[in-house]
Design a protein that fits this description.
Strand order of the largest sheet: 1-2
Oligomer: single chain
Helix content: 40-55%
Number of strands: 2
Radius of gyration: 21 Å
Low-confidence stretches: 1-8, 30-46
Length: about 325
């Protein structure tokens, strides 16, 4: 996954498209217990957004998810184990801090704006919102893991020996994956997902369903109502995504730690406030949620076996992560 270096206000649609084409998750940049109740399965806000409460929308795919805190636990175990492995080769690798996602990407997926508090923050949301959108889609993942080129072979296993020491098969990434997958190797083989934490089948379905929803006549009619409302308000846009990605403010938000955000401007706030009112008037979020629910159910029916494997492997990794990082 490439590391963004330019400021970017990331819409969920854009992030879904970007992550759908990713290679192995968390790759280097060159240069608990058994299943229990619904809340432990991720609850109404899975895969993230435990700070958002019960107002977050529930989608069928959430039944196959971990909760935000559980995803964070697995990701922390992963990063700790990567550091331990690299240290055996005399490499002190700095890994990004993993924090629990507070703002799930699900509200934005169904075109809700309320969790961003438009009257205060415009489209960007509170501090941490933009980073949480990426982390939520990748189930707690990070795009900031940096492995210097000279150590890349130790990380990915492209070399067999480093400084006289034998590199484990698949490098430290392979070793960590095997530790997380312990007792679940057959699930990994059957699933055929090369991401350390198997989030891509979930994101792929979300992306496919989002495309299906956007082509649905009922959704397009809701967008038509939204456009007419925005036109009456003197803020014409072709779509909600176009409003969020307006060049006047899209470049003012950074999702990297290297660059600071620029202050949110009055035009963005006024547009976002109007946008939220027009989405409510057009019933856009309700239509979108209903369609996402319907089409996700269809995808789940077609992919039940694969999603079952994802769920089982996630639970295996959750149990093993507790052993790796007490």
């Amino acid at each position: 996954m490439e590391r963004f270096k330019k400021p970017l206000l990331a819409t969920v649609g854009l992030l879904l498209m970007l992550t759908a084409g990713c290679g192995p998750e968390g790759g280097p940049q060159s240069g608990g217990g058994p299943q229990t109740g619904a809340a432990d399965r991720g609850g109404p806000t899975a895969p993230g957004g435990e700070g958002g409460g019960s107002a977050d929308p529930v989608l069928p795919l959430h039944d196959y998810e971990l909760s935000a805190s559980q995803y964070a636990r697995v990701q922390r175990a992963r990063m700790t184990a990567v550091q331990e492995c690299m240290r055996r080769f005399g490499i002190d690798l700095e890994v990004p801090a993993i924090r629990q996602v507070r703002w799930s990407h699900t509200p934005a997926l169904v075109h809700r704006l309320g969790d961003r508090e438009p009257a205060r923050y415009g489209y960007r949301g509170p501090l941490g919102y933009q980073a949480d959108q990426y982390a939520s889609i990748t189930r707690g993942g990070t795009k900031a893991l940096f492995v210097p080129t000279k150590y890349g072979g130790v990380y990915d296993g492209s070399i067999r020996v480093f400084d006289g020491r034998v590199v484990p098969p698949g490098g430290c990434q392979g070793e960590v994956t095997r530790r997380l997958d312990r007792t679940g190797a057959s699930l990994r083989k059957e699933l055929g997902d090369d991401s350390v934490i198997p989030w891509k089948p979930l994101a792929d379905i979300e992306a496919k369903v989002a495309g299906t929803v956007s082509a649905d006549r009922r959704y397009q009619e809701a967008v038509g109502r939204w456009k007419r409302c925005m036109n009456r308000s003197g803020r014409p846009f072709d779509s909600p995504d176009a409003a969020e990605a307006d060049p006047r403010w899209v470049a003012s938000v950074s999702i990297t730690e290297e660059e600071a955000d620029r202050p949110v401007g009055r035009p963005e706030i006024e547009t976002a406030v109007t946008d939220e009112k027009c989405r409510d008037e057009a019933n856009l979020a309700a239509v979108s949620l209903a369609l996402h629910t319907t089409y996700q159910k269809e995808e789940i029916k077609e992919n039940a076996t694969r999603l079952g494997l994802v769920r089982k492997l996630l639970l295996v990794q959750l149990r093993n992560s507790a052993r790796m990082v007490p």
